[in-house]
Each structure stands twice: as C-alpha cells, then as structure tokens.
Design brief:
Elements (H helix, E strand, L loop, with lengths): L21 E5 L3 H7 L4 H22 L3 E8 L7 H24 L2 E6 L7 H14 L5 E9 L1 H17 L10 H5 L12 E4 L18 E4 L9 H12 L9
Parallel strand pairs: 1-2, 1-5, 2-4, 3-4, 5-6
Length: 248
C-alpha cells in the first residue's frame, strides 16, 4: 500500500456502502511487542494505548459509527499483580489526559463490564468520562473493562429469571431482543466486523452473544503496530465479504 492510505483523505477511497457501522477489536499482542524489542511489558501497553487513539480517529475520519475495544478481561486479573496495577493506573491516566481532547472531537465514551471490581478512583474517572461525553455523536467508543462474555450472559439469565420468579415477566416473553437489552451492550448494535490482532485464532470470551453474524478478521500484526494502514486493510477486507446472514 502507498503512503496515501495513511492520510484521512483515504476515506475517499472507501466504498461508503461497504463500511461497517460497528467494529469490535481484540487488542492483542502488547506484551509480545515489548518482548521483541527487549522492553518491559508495560511499554507495550503504553504503545497500545497510543494506537487506540489513532484508531478512534480513523473511525471518525472514515464514518465508522461505533468502536468497541477489549481493554481488560475478567481473566486478566490472573496476570502478575504489578502488571494489573499498572494497567489500572494506565486506564485512569489515559482518561484524565485524553478526556478533554476526545470530548472536543465528539467522541462518546461508554464502558461495559463489571465496573464495581475496579479501583474506586478509576470508577470515578470512568463515570466522569461517560457523563461528560454522553451527548457526543461523532464516534461511539465502547471500552470493555473487567468484561467476560460468559459472565455477562449468566448475569442476564439470572436477571431475567428473577423477573419471572417475581411475576414481573412471563417466560414466553423472553426473546432475542429482550435478552440483548439485558446485556452490558444494551442499546449498542451488534458488531459488523471483529478484528483480532497478533494472529490468535480464538474469541477469548469476548462478545459471544453479540458476534453471532459478525465478520471476523485476524491479522498477525501486534496491536501496538496496528496503525491506520493496517486498519484500512481490515476495512477493505470486510468490504469484500458476501454477508448473507444464513440466506442465499
């Protein structure tokens, strides 16, 4: 690809009819990126955070309405304590540092997952960011933090079962729409495209309900190297897919 694709003007080369409305990204490979360069894993996380900012701008430039990113899974608590603590501090610092700029660019920030398990100071910054950007509409950025899809589905089943037990809901009224509106992602359209970086070929407990008919794109590129050009390639690949949704 030529350097022309690195410019926001590359949006003119995209077929608007074939753009995904909603892209989900599994930002994988930060640690391996750092290891390849003889750096501590935290350096990979810092670079990955910078790359996220670039991808958000791509969505704005190209007219992609929503971006959902897998920032921290329920399983990530099993990582070394020092790494987990660093990530919590990094999330908080990024919100403090970037909020004003993202707000000025019209980014609406939403967090999905069990936020009650996060440090109180991070919870406050998360709420501040969501409140400040609630009315923005240029890009909807959904950050999955302490998120696990199986837990999300179990919580939804328990919630609906309690409503049935209390007589507030008839079992036959439970359908796909009602179930979807009881998930963390209530009000968010299902992703059209799921991107996983670093070449791993698994879903890792991410949006299992929501990606039933999502196109999947896997690249060997590590997340800190997943720049505008790499994202462009993924969007072009998506546009070449024949999406039939089980039909002919």
């Amino acid at each position: 690809m030529t350097s022309k694709l690195l410019s926001p003007l590359s949006a003119t080369l995209l077929d608007c009819q074939k753009l995904p409305n909603h892209v989900a990204v599994m930002m994988d490979g930060n640690g391996r990126w750092a290891k390849k360069r003889g750096l501590p894993r935290n350096a990979g996380h810092r670079q990955g955070a910078k790359m996220l900012k670039e991808i958000v701008r791509c969505c704005k430039d190209w007219g992609i309405q929503s971006l959902t990113v897998y920032a921290f899974s329920t399983e990530n608590w099993g990582r070394p304590t020092t790494e987990v603590e660093f990530l919590m501090v990094l999330f908080e610092r990024m919100l403090c540092k970037e909020l004003d700029e993202m707000h000025s660019e019209g980014v609406c920030i939403r967090f999905i997952g069990d936020l009650t398990q996060l440090p109180k100071s991070l919870q406050r910054e998360i709420q501040k960011a969501m409140d400040a950007t609630a009315n923005n509409q240029s890009v909807f950025l959904n950050v999955a933090i302490n998120y696990g899809s199986r837990q999300e589905i179990l919580n939804t089943c328990r919630h609906l079962a309690q409503k049935v037990q209390c007589g507030e809901l008839l079992p036959e009224k439970i359908d796909e729409h009602l179930f979807s509106q009881s998930l963390y992602t209530a009000g968010i359209e299902d992703p059209d495209l799921l991107i996983r970086t670093s070449g791993e070929m698994r879903l890792s407990n991410f949006l299992l309900w929501q990606i039933a008919y999502t196109e999947i794109y896997v690249t060997d590129t590590l997340w800190p190297d997943f720049n505008r050009e790499e994202f462009y390639r993924a969007i072009i690949a998506y546009g070449q897919r024949d999406r039939r949704f089980g039909k002919i």
